[in-house]
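Batch 3, record 17
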Amino acid sequence: AQSVTQLDSHVSVSEGTPVLLRCNYSSSYSPSLFWYVQHPNKGLQLLLKYTSAATLVKGINGFEAEFKKSETSFHLTKPSAHMSDAAEYFCVVRQYSSASKIIFGSGTRLSIRP
Amino acid sequence: DTAVSQTPKYLVTQMGNDKSIKCEQNLGHDTMYWYKQDSKKFLKIMFSYNNKELIINETVPNRFSPKSPDKAHLNLHINSLELGDSAVYFCASSQDGDRVWTEAFFGQGTRLTVV
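Prediction for the assembled complex:
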């Protein structure tokens, strides 16, 4: 069975400083991994995805994530936070099975201090 | 041109009523989903359909009944609404290949409030 754990429920950083949102996964097979962002009262938007190609994945708005199989991690980073990055971020895992599911982590709320 | 559209966006109704939420995708995807997001932002899958066939049915009260008239539509009907059904419901779709799982595209959500 697959699962995903987001290690921080809330992260607060100052504008212009780096962002790190942590995600660990559990999967019996090679997973596909995704990060989604949800701005307040909005839907879910895909930030980036890993599907067994390059382990360092670049996404929209300057975000990137690195797939580390040995650590079963897929942490999301951004070199310099912007006020507009304040939102809820979800790490998502999928793997092959007879009834594939898209499994969401519990979410990390990112706050940006001026 | 919206890829996954849900209607209505907001739904306020009284306990005991029956209501439906509609979802349509114009991406040509084979798989559609319903997710429930609770007040703590946790997203949990409810149902998944592939080519109109139910493939995932999580532990959801049988008051919830999905219906897929064709692969572009997945509607959610809820009978005898309860206070605990208040949540945001998201529809999504994806197109999957052989052992390659693509991203899901989500609708904007339907905020259901039961009073």
